[in-house]
Amino acid sequence: MTGASAPVAVTGLGVAAPNGLGAADYWAATRGGKSGIGRITRFDPSGYPAQLAGEIPGFDAAEHLPSRLLPQTDRVTRLALAAADWALADAGVAPESFDPLDMGVVTASHAGGFEFGQGELQKLWARGSQFVSAYQSFAWFYAVNSGQISIRHGMKGPSGVVVSDQAGGLDALAQARRQVRKGTPLIVTGALDASVCPWGWVAQLASGRMSTSAEPTRAYLPFDRDARGYVPGEGGALLVLEPADAARARGARVLGEIAGYGATIDPAPGSGRPSTLRTAIRVALDDAGAAPGDVDVVFADGAGVPELDRTEAEAVSEVFGSGRVAVTVPKSMTGRLYSGAAPLDVACALLAMRAGVIPPTVHTDPCPEYDLDLVLYQARPAELRTALVVARGHGGFNSAMVVRAGE
Amino acid sequence: MTERRVALTGMEVLAPGGLGRAEFWRLISEGRTATRGITFFDPAPFRSRVAAEADFCGLEYGLSPQEARRMDRAAQFAVVAAGNAVDDSGADLGGIAPHRVGVVVGSAVGATMGLDEEYRVVSDGGRLDLVDHRYAVPHLYNFLVPSSFAAEVAWAVGGEGPATVVSTGCTSGIDAVGYGAELVREGSVDVMVAGAADAPISPITLACFDAIKATTPRTEAPERASRPFDGTRNGFVLGEGAAFFVLEELESARRRDAHVYAEIAGYATRSNAYHMTGLRRDGAEMAEAIRVALAEARMNPEDVDYVNAHGSGTKQNDRHETAAFKKSLGEHAFRTPVSSIKSMVGHSLGAIGAIEIAASALAMEYDVVPPTANLHTPDPECDLDYVPLTARDQLVDAVLTVGSGFGGFQSAMVLAGPERSIV
């Protein structure tokens, strides 16, 4: 079934996160409150004001990818190619059994292959333009993951790439859902980001929102009275979307449904107008045909920056009532993964629904003014049918997505 | 429920040699070219040394000194073009709920110019591996993530609805407008400010295209460097700029007596799943995108009055595209005029798709097909009617415009003239 309101199912997950490579490891760690945040190992961070990140340990690209792909890919693309493989395997999909035009790839990106770009910029300025790699023209740009995944799996259907900072991950899932509803039987969608390299680090520091704490348990504290900024991380998730009826017809396991989506952008700073986050949430609920009372858990954006935490808490309280809905921030265990964060939260919500537990927010001592029912320190058993995922990006991007459990 | 249709009611173009839609149209309808030897920096170390540079400075177009400082050149193009497009539409955005006004900006390479300049400083000319954050400009994060372009445009026009950047390489412009049209059609917004901008004329861009010989090495007569479909073509000429549009539901545009340039009648994108930069000769995936876009527009190939080609001027693109037109349009491919404005304004990567949509809409507005400049030498592999050198007066009521990009993206859009939209 296609059409503007046809149900769209998630049938596969591919996860690469700082606290777990693969959906099973990620879920075990996340449910158990295990954080992947630590001191940066990929370069010496001692000269920088922020030194912690959520790095993915133990990812050896050569174990997962053909050697010919390695010279032409940034770390982010290697992670994305591996995650796409895992998502398709998890969905029980053999791409060669589909018509190539019936499969597409829609990803979000934040910084493209930034580490690759640093290497080539260095060659350009230190050695000369003739030393710049033939792969630079595509290895760094924002479309690289969609392009490489489509090539690897022979996916010729509608593809796309969106960039809306940390909100982009949900915008990609929404665009993928749109394409499925318009008639494409399978879309690989989501996002991964990875720019833990000195040039990426310096560019991220310019946000002014990164935590300078050196203590992994005290650095990123969303909704905490001592919130002091965020810790970035690398990774994210890719999902397989299919029309729900077609997925069931092929005997696929339906993890859940992308039921609703809304997006807004905040007015210009200094305009005096309020944040539009609550509107994004309400549009997403309307789109899902859900009332606030139907939502069992909110996977919050959890910026970890006091003024942003406050506007998010206010929006959640206004839509759901103060303390009326469980709220969690599992990304407190991964750091903020930019466009990778929200697809990972959607994956986490689906895994939580299956397990019947809400994963915790770690390390936060909640600011009582926010009046949120935060799930703290350890997982909380709960019957979960409907979850809301919130993602907010630098510049005021707000996206919200309603996810429903599979049967 | 009748299907919502999408009208293009406001337009602005900032292109090399054509800053403003009127000047842009004069340039391309007169067949003049804006390519020249690069002046932005010393191009001597590079293989390709020509570009279509725009004599544009945001400060001269109303940006404040601080706005100009925090925005990459591409963002400046975007903000100025978007604001002028809204003015041109005559739409009173203040009369619409802000969350029903969305923004989409296409850009292939984001703030690449700003990143190149800032990298050079924080690395001290490439000397430092551990680049020095103390030399970074405070707005560097806005260069890192080009969604800052969408935020700037939204703030400038007062939109508070969905906002994003679409970044699908050289099809970004078509794909951004296609994305915006889809949001209007599905009813997620009432108005979409949609367009694309890129400003890639920087050393790193030149170097990376040099490395794969995608840009022309021709240095003599830079005004004749961009030669789509010509037998002597040997690479594209980099350009820069922006085009923006106001998209709204057709009936409500008519109710407010808006000037409708065109209806966005059909759009599709497909991927070749073949190579990040290479193209198969047969053009099958672009042909598929064209077929789907025509079907969405409920048109037959014979309805297409003009094909606005990607026509980049690389050996492989122009024959790939010619094959795609034959495969999708059949015999009509030989009868309909096909032209590439990249011969005049260069290839501005993500921006050009939007600039070409503007050219397509203006072709319908004036019933003139813009020419392919610099086309003197026939190529047996490119055997369609490419409208060489001189514009052609003819009725233009439906235009097909296409794009092809790194990553394998192939996109097609069908625009219908307002007369056609009445039926």
TrEMBL record, chain A:
Domain Ketosynthase family 3 (KS3): 5-405
InterPro entries to which the protein is assigned, alphabetical: Beta-ketoacyl_synthase (IPR000794), Ketoacyl_synth_C (IPR014031), Ketoacyl_synth_N (IPR014030), PKS_Beta-ketoAc_synthase_dom (IPR020841), Thiolase-like (IPR016039)
Record protein name field: Ketosynthase chain-length factor
SUPFAM superfamilies: Thiolase-like (SSF53901)
Keyword Ubl conjugation among UniProt keywords: no
A family per Pfam: Ketoacyl-synt_C
Family recorded in the similarity comment: Belongs to the thiolase-like superfamily. Beta-ketoacyl-ACP synthases family.
Entry keyword annotation includes Manganese: no
Alphabetical UniProt keywords: Acyltransferase, Transferase
Superkingdom to which the source organism belongs: Bacteria
